[in-house]
Amino acid sequence: MQIVRFTSPLTGADAVGIDDGEQVVELSGITTVGELLRLSSGELRERCAAADGPGHPSSAVRRLAPVDGRMEVWAAGVTYRRSREARVLESERAADVYELVYDAERPELFFKSVAWKVSGDGGRISVRADSEIDVPEPELGLVLNSAGEIVGYTVVDDVSSRTIEGVNPLYLPQAKIYLGACAVGPAIRPAWEVADPYALDITLTIARAGETVWDGKASTSQLNRRLDDLAGYLYRADSFPDGAVLATGTCLVPDLPFTLRDGDTVTIGIGEIGTLTTDVVKGLDAMR
């Protein structure tokens, strides 16, 4: 079962529903994912089980990014050994910063995107025109309700400029927060259907002109943090009335000097969660 945000074939309006693989049934009375995430975990599970709105063939539904309204996307950094190694390698002056945060009690958390900037499955991601090396970062996303409970999982691409962050870690917002730097989807897999979120395979494939130019596979078993701890730090001094998505860090980073190019296709798969595919464009104008 997946919780999906989509364009209703009946009305053309955005809707939220339950997809069983064959049919999407709308959640009557729920118009946004944010509304659903105001519910407790137990209430949300009951609401999903009681989906009673119009039904549509799954193949006829155009899915949207499962992030809307006042929802925000945040991300955790340096949570896998591979991520630590990549950050140290690319950093020119502050490699020790990444070494220290990997083992620190407090995780690195940073804001990634407001809902309206997030791309969904089949959408576009962008590399900055003022950056030379840019990469996708495939990550397991925690879907958190307003109380900070992990109620679901999704796939996140934390697109990043290695050029900009590598010069100075204080440039991280410019390297990671811009139009086209965040993709989420294709849907939300309810947490109660995932037996072990620490045993999920993650794959990344980058295609160029129809040929695979980079691919890799890893697992959430390599994560150096507890998922509930990451969520707890995010909600420790902040409020998310319509919930949030928290990307949990990447374990797949192409070796330098690999970079995304205009026209590439990025496919991220996470076992039991779904597959997120996006096309790469370059620069702000291509995203408008």
Automatic annotation (TrEMBL):
<dbReference type="InterPro" id="IPR011234">
    <property type="entry name" value="Fumarylacetoacetase-like_C"/>
</dbReference>
<protein>
    <submittedName>
        <fullName>Fumarylacetoacetate hydrolase</fullName>
    </submittedName>
</protein>
<feature type="domain" description="Fumarylacetoacetase-like C-terminal">
    <location>
        <begin position="105"/>
        <end position="281"/>
    </location>
</feature>
<dbReference type="GO" id="GO:0044281">
    <property type="term" value="P:small molecule metabolic process"/>
</dbReference>
<dbReference type="InterPro" id="IPR051121">
    <property type="entry name" value="FAH"/>
</dbReference>
<dbReference type="InterPro" id="IPR036663">
    <property type="entry name" value="Fumarylacetoacetase_C_sf"/>
</dbReference>
<keyword id="KW-0479">Metal-binding</keyword>
<keyword id="KW-0378">Hydrolase</keyword>
<dbReference type="GO" id="GO:0016787">
    <property type="term" value="F:hydrolase activity"/>
</dbReference>
<dbReference type="Pfam" id="PF01557">
    <property type="entry name" value="FAA_hydrolase"/>
</dbReference>
<comment type="similarity">
    <text>Belongs to the FAH family.</text>
</comment>
<dbReference type="GO" id="GO:0046872">
    <property type="term" value="F:metal ion binding"/>
</dbReference>
